[in-house]
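anyone seen this seq b4? input:
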Amino acid sequence: MAKRQSDQVSRAEKVRARRKQTRKPISKTPLGSSATRKQTKNNAPVTRRSTPRVPVVNRKKNRMHIPLKNKGAEIQLPGLPRFQPGWQLVSGAIFVISLVVVISLSGLEMFQVKTIDLKGAERLGGEAILSQADLSGNSIISIRPSEIEEQVLENFPSLSRVNVTVGLPASVMIRVVERQPLILWEQPESLLWIDTEGVMFPIRGEAEVQLRVLASGNPPGPPQDLPQEEEELLLLLQNPTYPTTTPDFVQAVVSFEDFLPEGSELQYDPRFGLGWIDPNGWLVYFGKDTTNIDIKLAEYETILTALEKRQVTPALISLEFMHAPFYRLEH
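predicted toks r here
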């Protein structure tokens, strides 16, 4: 029985060996085949392109250095300025646009001056001021108030202040302040008023003046060694057509009113200064200021007493220099 079992085992082994010889070998499927995983959709092939390297441009001041393919080789080109607009360019553009708009509007009829409002002129006629300003019919945009103020002050020294303002669409307002005359300066060829600042201007209209001076020449002008600021101010006030004196001289003229004999008129001579015609008929002068006027008046009385004793009638007595008075028998 044991021999039978061994025969069966050997026979089974032989059958297995025979089957192995006749069985086809199973080929291994490649990784990713349809038998092992789900088949994916066809995708477009992906290709990689190598991009050429961009050369780095080096900018130094006014030149550009461009490297070439060859190592160490480069090209030098003149560099162009970089355009970098800033606030200056923007503001300049706004200014140009505004200027174009203003020029285009200046020709319109609605911007032409038709009405002028003038206030403050009492003695000086408004027509005279407007004729010098020449504003009627001009464009309101082209009017410069500062130039008009300077022009009016130059042509009319009787005005101490001028203010010009413009309004849209076409209105002009002029405000003036007139000088108040204090002295009537009467020369053979002209009549002028003088105010407290020493400005002389022609007579226009009517005004009450405190003193009248009969003069044979212009009053003393301002000193030549004035500080620069005062000199510039005086040049602005002075019109080339009319002389100018000083406030100190104006005060000296006013102070002589207290010593002026009744019925006499104040006189001025460029050589001897201020004085008057004595009721007895001769001229007496005391200089160009009122310094030591009390002493000079006492000295004048002493001279008159001495001349009466000598029965001498002078034509002129000068006390301009207190320590060197003199008299003349003829003019």
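The CA atoms of residues 51 and 69 lie 14 Å apart. DSSP finds seven helices and 15 strands in the chain. kinda curious what u guys think
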